[in-house]
Amino acid sequence: MESEDDMHDANEIASVEEEDDYYSGGEDEEEEDMDEEGEAGEDDYSYDYADEDDDDDTGDYDFIANYSDDGDDALASRSQKSFTILKEEDIEQRQEEDITKISTVLSIPREAACILLRRYNWSVNNVHEEWFANEEVVRKAVGLLEKPFVKLPNFKEVACGICFENYSCDSLRSAACAHLFCDACWKGRGSRIFSFRFPSFLGELKLCKRATNSYISTSINDGPGCLTLRCPDPSCGAAVGQDMIDMLASDEDRKKYRRYLLRSYVEDSRKIKWCPAPGCDSAVEYVVGSGSYDVSCSCSHSFCWNCIEEAHRPVDCETVAKWVMKNSAESENMNWILANSKPCPKCKRPIEKNQGCMHMTCTPPCKFEFCWLCLGAWSDHGERTGGFYACNRYEAAKQEGVYDEAERRREMAKNSLERYTHYYERWASNQSSRQKALADLQQMQSIHLEKLSEVQSQPESQLKFIIEAWQQIVECRRVLKWTYAYGYYLPEQEATKKKVFEYLQGEAEAGLERLHQCAEKELMNYLNSDGPSKDFNDFRTKLAGLTSVTRNYFENLVRALENGLSDVDSEAASINTTTSSKNAAGTSKGKSGRGKGSSKAGNTSVRNTADDSGNWTCDQCTYMNVSSAPTCHMCHQRR
Amino acid sequence: MTSPSASSRKALSKIACNRLQKELVEWQVNPPTGFKHKVTDNLQRWVIEVNGAPGTLYAGETYQLQVDFPEHYPMEAPQVIFVPPAPLHPHIYSNGHICLDILYDSWSPAMTVSSICISILSMLSSSPVKQRPADNDRYVKNCKNGRSPKETRWWFHDDKV
């Protein structure tokens, strides 16, 4: 225990110094920083941006062409937010705006503009391009006719193309093509007519869906394909636009159609995705090239915009997908059975042996008695084969190599399963811990804050630090959770990286535990006290300090992991040659590439500490050891 | 268009009856070449004789088509199958199911039995080889217990035959 305390102390010193490092190298440049560092700060900033572009854009995105349209916007909004939340009204409004734009520029009716936009995935630019490149081809592709396909017949009576009943010309309707169909076939017969003509059918009519009674309702009830509805004549292809839908569909169907139209705006776009939270109707537009994919919706659900899983920074989407798959995979059960059980030699049911001797008796109805080691019948065993706890036959056979293969497989499966269980348990416990913290945060905001403000006679605005602490806890639990998935997939042979990772993770976790403890337990004293506590201000300082320290730990962890712990190699190499600044930077545990050259102040102070006290940095894990220690406190590497 | 096979067993709606009667009259006046409607008193199931077109692989052969109409015909497509033995054709399965888009996704209520027949004959006539679809055995096995071809999710990829 003693040594652990030491460790904490040492870390606290380090972390205070790192604060500078983080803020000057952080993504969201604060103005003060810019002012202080002047030119240098700005250089940093632009460097950051270029760097990120390289990383994020080229890999996952192939619509850089699109992006260049709004490149300026992206640049401007980048420093604030990488995404926009769109409510249904926002989407409708955008659709309206786009339709109006197209309709005005191309001088075509709104419904035609809508059809065009749908065809070109709601990209105003693409509609313009294609239309002006070759209007005729575009018109043909979407079924916008300039003149009727057929001449309107001159007869008084014409047969509807679907029901073949004769109607007078003016009671039939058509799309732009003039293929005529009767109202009943377009929109279905009103139930009134049915009840008048066939009163006995009425009951049945109500039961069966009217949906299937007409061309339009059949199509709408068939799904979003109705958005590209064409004239019923198979040789025609004239588009049936929203104007006709509005005129001919029932209220319910009209609503459905509008819903599909709304959805198409999001689902056809490569920049907008629906929030995956159940019951949430918002969509999130992501500004391409703005770094982290983590977004959070107005419903407070935060998710990765790229893979739609819950937010998982700093772990990449691929690892998360593997991990999620693994957690749900039935194969883990199989692995367990394989590792921990053997089939009964007689009935073949898997048997787990968790204790006791080698004399096994299978459960009824089998009841076969056998030896666990050699799986032979127990009747052949006894004192002469080694008694209850050994089996000479097995030992002899093992010497000859008979069991090796199966045993080794079993052993390996068991090890890998234990390893997985280790990570999974920690992943899952952070998950539930986060859920609890989230609930606590909400309770804090809705109930406790008011009470605390009363008890301690503090205005609520002065108690923000508590909310911030809880928000930090929730966020840290999330990060910590995903680091266990990261750890599971960290290659076993990369021992150095693994050690650094475990060190960083351990630090972060310890910091978080202190913060969580303070926010959960110590706060209770102040909440339940009878009047204002004298030391409440001390508590404020402590909690705010812990919040900021923990934030730093996690920022370091996140940055190190996002870099793939790439500093490990370079630092290990550079440590021996340049012991001063690089060495000191090593203590900032996973200094990120982005922060390169940005933390002059921080570096200097650390270097001084190092020089003055004679502390040394471990080559292997970068831990800063006291001068007297002959081996690394963390990894026991010799100095 | 989606439609459970159950609906095809429901009685025809009034609209469907009217339309089918008109189609039948039109058929009797002007039947499509190579087809013969076998007269029954069941308006909901038509049995049609198909004669392979002269000069094609199926010349001189006769097959039977069975057309079942759903309650909401023509808004829903009819179910059309060959009564086994079905012609050997790359798009016709041995259980009589036909892989032809207008019978499923591309059905339009402006089509008729007569226009379906013409499409099927054209499909037969353009076949260069008499053989079953590659996945015939697998498909037919999955269609046990009289499953309707309308429940199959067809994937139309070959527009040559």
UniProtKB/TrEMBL annotation, chain A:
InterPro entries (UniProt xref): Ariadne (IPR045840), ARIH1-like_UBL (IPR048962), E3_UB_ligase_RBR (IPR031127), IBR_dom (IPR002867), TRIAD_supradom (IPR044066), Znf_RanBP2 (IPR001876), Znf_RanBP2_sf (IPR036443), Znf_RING/FYVE/PHD (IPR013083)
Keywords for this protein: Coiled coil, Metal-binding, Repeat, Transferase, Ubl conjugation pathway, Zinc, Zinc-finger
KW NADP (keyword) present: no
Superkingdom in the source lineage: Eukaryota
Residues passing through the membrane, by range: none
Top class in the EC scheme: transferase
Region annotation (Disordered) ranges: 1-61, 575-609
Domain RanBP2-type: from-to ranges: 612-639
Domain RING-type as annotated: residue spans: 156-395
EC number: 2.3.2.31
CDD domains membership: BRcat_RBR_ANKIB1, Rcat_RBR_ARI7-like
Biased composition (Acidic residues): 15-60
Xref: PROSITE patterns: TRIAD (PS51873), ZF_RANBP2_1 (PS01358), ZF_RANBP2_2 (PS50199), ZF_RING_1 (PS00518)
Coiled coil: 396-423
Catalyzed reaction equations: [E2 ubiquitin-conjugating enzyme]-S-ubiquitinyl-L-cysteine + [acceptor protein]-L-lysine = [E2 ubiquitin-conjugating enzyme]-L-cysteine + [acceptor protein]-N(6)-ubiquitinyl-L-lysine
Cofactor(s) needed by this chain: Zn(2+)
Family label: Belongs to the RBR family. Ariadne subfamily.
Protein name as catalogued: RBR-type E3 ubiquitin transferase
UniProtKB/TrEMBL annotation, chain B:
CDD domains: UBCc_UBE2W
UniProtKB keywords: ATP-binding, Nucleotide-binding, Transferase, Ubl conjugation pathway
One Pfam family recorded for the sequence: UQ_con
Record domain UBC core: where: 15-161
SUPFAM superfamilies assigned to the protein according to its UniProt record, in alphabetical order: UBC-like
UniProt-annotated catalytic positions: 99
InterPro entries membership: Ub_conjugating_enzyme, UBC, UBQ-conjugating_AS, UBQ-conjugating_enzyme/RWD
SMART domains (UniProt xref): UBCc
Protein family per UniProt: Belongs to the ubiquitin-conjugating enzyme family.
Record-linked PANTHER family: UBIQUITIN-CONJUGATING ENZYME E2
Protein's name according to its UniProt entry: UBC core domain-containing protein
Organism from which the protein derives: Rehmannia glutinosa (Chinese foxglove)
